[in-house]
Amino acid sequence: MNRHVWIMALGERTRPDQPTFAEDPSPLDARACVVVDDFADLFPVFAGWRAHFAEEITTWAMRVPADAQGRPAEGWEAVWAEDGPPIRLDCRPGGFIEVRPDVFEPPRGRPLSPPAVPGSAKPAVITAV
Question: What are the boundaries of each domain within the chain?
Answer without folding.
Answer: 4-101
